[in-house]
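I would love for you to help me understand the pair of lines that follows before we discuss the fold together.
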Amino acid sequence: MESPINLDYVAQLEQRLVDLQYAEKLQQALFKISSLSHDEMDLQQLYHKVHLIIDDVLEAKNFFIALLDDENQTISLPYFIDEKDFDEKDMTGQTLDVGEGLSSYVIRTRTPQLITANIVKKLIKSGEIQEVLGSTEFTCWMGAPMISAETMHGIIVVQSYQKDALYNQNDLKLLDFVANQVANAIEMNVNESQRREAQLRLAEQHRTLEQKNITLTKTIKDLKKAQEELVQKEKMASLGGLVAGIAHEINTPLGICVTATSHLFEEHNEIKKAYESGELTEDSLNEYFDEFSQGLKILSSNTKRAAELVKSFKQVAVDQSSNEIRTINVSQYIQEIILSLKPKLKRVSHEIIIDCPDHINVEINAGAVSQIFSNFIMNSIIHGFEGIENGRIHIKVTVKANQLKIHYVDNGKGIEAHSLAQLFEPFFTTKRGEGGSGLGTHLIYNLVHSSLNGSIKAQSEPNKGLAYLIKVPL
């Protein structure tokens, strides 16, 4: 006689089989969803594929995605599939107030929710929600927030109208996982849009810069022509400051840019030769990267400075005191000025010593300070250290009695007494006919008196160097 069939055992086996099939489908769904964020597709395609994947695992014929506009407290529906809501009207693309329904409950709690009709009644009674927007005939409702990097993008909702299609906590976990993946995809899409917008802005800025460069070139030509006319008419006394600005202020940053560009070309050619010959080392490559980075900083700072100078040339010399005033750390700022001159300093073996406490911060015309030190250093290199291989520059800065004192000393060849008396006069130069404009020290004098409201004195003897003392009230 055969043993009776154990119906409970058979039921258990059937349930295990169902569970295994569900687990297999769930695993496949998770893999597909994880892969979606790496595919190149727009968000609308992503929403549709996510819907198909979820529908393959659980009952998801009623599915929608709502994006949150937190500022306006609205939600938009880029994807909406529902059998009964809104009299079967397609709500895709519609924008609604957040309200106080189930969707707003998920957004407010920032946690996934599994809700039945009974739970809805409890939520209404407790005041958590006010009403259910749309059909209330669902048997089960799930909503999961789409959150990435603490940003709430919206929610994903799945609901069932079938009595035999009830969701469980595993289904809720799946929906929560999906919501996280979609949130990441939305975040990536937003970042990509922002990147494209930034590129468009950069392109527009580039076009604007090109136009400004054209205008700058024309302005320089016009200013040089004006300078020549001023020289011919010998209007040195009244218009010396303007001529100084025209001839020197613009040429200084542009000359630095030209020198920096030439230096970068040389470094590029050397590293290219080393690469082609197989002699490229890690140290030389790192050194090249450092040189290139510093070169770019120099070009950036000096083109900006040139643009600012062109703007200032629209005013006469007496308006130079209206330049921007800002707080600088003197020691750090001097280092930055020396860095801007590095392409020229690398060609010589001179030493620059900076004696300035790190705590000196002053509110001052930073552009004037930069121009003064640049002219000091270049005058020492070109004039003071002519025929000297290892010159030394000593810069000492102190603050006493609410006064900034700058001592600048080089150990160059110095100048004669009669030249010292004319040092700050416009167009005075010891390099007449050799490229000297005679405007460098006159520019320094104007900057100290007009822009800094300070005073400057010079002291020198032949073969004993040249010293400047600048006093600036703070």
About this structure: Residues 230-246, 314-322 have pLDDT under 50 and may be disordered.
